[in-house]
């Protein structure tokens, strides 16, 4: 792939943002900490575009994520710490180092071997004391729990039988029922979530994705209730729980019928 044109465009982007940072009052005031949440927001917007398989939106959102990289790097350049070239060069060195089967003489024939090699090189490079070091604490909680469990499982700390996990889920629910204080209830509730993430992992289900999809279904069904209320000229507050539950079940039936049609 010839990136000479892309290189020119990237330089233009960096030059444009350097000028914005220099001349725009708002941009001038920003710090890495003041804009840190923007990166998460832009990443989620990109994730949504990917899920919709919308190329136009992906172009826009990838651009917004790229802007965050340029923005953070420019702030550090203004502070005399590093610039975008340091970021790019570090990335290049890391990619070459972690792919000796591509850029070196080492042969790796399958995906599993590549992943094991990646983890070993990363561990050596980072000099971490724990295999759990490096998992960001700010990750979404379900993703973090699954990542921690995956890492622990690699060294044999894992359930062997799915029935053991189901028993663990039941055990944690029992402990929640027996909990007395608010702190105990919160503690046991957390343990249930950990057990359910473990169950999902053994069923090859991504817990974060499963909850995301379940929440989408809840939103869709609730919006159906809102639609029905509007058709009848009612406010949701004036509807009985029985009425709302009836439309909830209708929405579920519509979902099922739509899915059956798609699978034909």
From TrEMBL:
Enzyme class: hydrolase
Gene3D superfamilies: MazG-like
A biological process term (GO) from this entry: response to stress
Keyword terms of this UniProt record: Coiled coil, Methyltransferase, Transferase
Catalytic activity line of the entry: ATP + H2O = AMP + diphosphate + H(+)
Entries under Pfam families matching the protein: MazG, PRA-PH
Superkingdom, natural source: Bacteria
Molecular function in Gene Ontology: ATP diphosphatase activity; methyltransferase activity
Coiled-coil zones: 159-186
EC number in record: 3.6.1.8
Residue ranges annotated for the NTP pyrophosphohydrolase MazG-like domain, each copy included: 30-103
NCBIfam families reported for this sequence: mazG, PRK09562.1
PANTHER family associated with the record: NUCLEOSIDE TRIPHOSPHATE PYROPHOSPHOHYDROLASE (PTHR30522:SF0)
Family: Belongs to the nucleoside triphosphate pyrophosphohydrolase family.
Annotated protein name in UniProt: Nucleoside triphosphate pyrophosphohydrolase
Organism annotation: Hydrogenothermus marinus
Taxonomic lineage: Bacteria, Pseudomonadati, Aquificota, Aquificia, Aquificales
């Amino acid at each position: 792939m010839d990136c000479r044109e892309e290189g020119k465009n990237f330089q233009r982007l960096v030059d444009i943002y350097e000028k914005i940072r220099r001349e725009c009052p708002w941009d001038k005031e920003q710090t890495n900490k003041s804009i840190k949440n923007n990166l998460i927001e832009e990443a989620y917007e990109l994730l949504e575009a990917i899920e919709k398989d919308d190329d136009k939106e992906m172009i826009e959102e990838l651009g917004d994520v790229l802007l965050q990289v340029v923005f953070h790097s420019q702030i550090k350049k203004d502070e005399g710490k590093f610039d975008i070239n340091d970021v790019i060069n570090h990335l290049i060195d890391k990619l070459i180092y972690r792919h000796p089967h591509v850029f070196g003489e080492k042969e790796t024939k399958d995906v599993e071997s590549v992943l094991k090699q990646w983890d070993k090189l990363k561990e050596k490079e980072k000099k971490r004391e724990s295999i759990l070091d490096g998992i960001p604490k700010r990750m979404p909680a379900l993703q973090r729990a699954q990542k921690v469990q995956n890492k622990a499982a690699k060294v044999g700390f894992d359930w062997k039988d799915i029935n053991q996990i189901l028993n663990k889920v039941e055990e944690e629910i029992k402990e929640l029922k027996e909990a007395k204080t608010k702190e105990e209830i919160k503690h046991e509730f957390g343990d249930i979530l950990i057990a359910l993430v473990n169950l999902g992992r053994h069923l090859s289900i991504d817990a974060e994705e499963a909850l995301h999809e379940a929440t989408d279904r809840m939103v869709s069904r609730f919006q159906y209730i809102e639609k029905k209320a509007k058709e009848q000229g009612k406010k949701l507050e004036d509807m009985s729980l029985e009425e709302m539950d009836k439309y909830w079940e209708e929405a579920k039936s519509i979902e099922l019928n739509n899915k059956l049609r798609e699978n034909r």
